[in-house]
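Trying the structure run again after the queue cleared.
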Amino acid sequence: MWYRSLECLREFSKQYWFYLSFENAVCEDYVTEKLARGLDSHSIPISLANQTGVRLPPRSYLKVPVDTGKITDEGIAELAQQMKQLMADREEYMRGVTSASASGGLT
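Done. Tokens:
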């Protein structure tokens, strides 16, 4: 698949601000390879995961707000607002990308 190549992921980030890293299972204290790839992509990954107890670089990802296991319209609106703010503030966006890169992502 295209995402297996780190080079390809970095090319991807030249066109896209965010990387959807939706997991098919959401477990506490567990990060899937999808989120790890997102951190390595030089884009900001958007995750469904419950990141309780998992240490990730600050501002390096966005979490889809989930209410009692379900994604709500309010949660999507909140996520969209966060994305808009980051796209309007390139410096803040780059802080998130840089914090993931500086830590080496999760690989």
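Strands lie at 18-21, 44-47, 62-63, 66-67, 70-71. Worth checking whether this holds up in the mutant runs.
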